[in-house]
Amino acid sequence: MNQPEQIRQLPEYAELTRARRKIVWPLSIAVIVAYFALILAIAFSPTSLGAPIGDGVTSIGVALGLSIILFCMVITGIYVTYANRVIEPLTRAIVQKAGELK
């Protein structure tokens, strides 16, 4: 058995792939839904997005666009926190065991 195949057989590798799948799909779906909701709002209701907020010149569309950017920053922060807490220790354990396999 070659080394990549031995690494795939490690329990830490299986746990790493499970941990990545657990976080990547929900966060990806959340970003895609938010982005397409904004795009669909722009396509089907451009006049309501162009309405100003209060007496100012900032429109609802600009506020929603900035909200999407902030939402993506929060999603990125959630992923980075999870990766530092769960994915990185598993990766280090796999690297250490891969070094022992040589």
From TrEMBL:
This is Membrane protein. The chain crosses the membrane at residues 23-44, 56-82. Signal peptide: none annotated. The lineage of its organism: Bacteria, Pseudomonadati, Pseudomonadota, Gammaproteobacteria, Cellvibrionales. Keywords: Membrane, Transmembrane, Transmembrane helix. It holds the Pfam family DUF485. PANTHER family: INNER MEMBRANE PROTEIN YJCH. It comes from Cellvibrio zantedeschiae. The keyword Membrane applies.
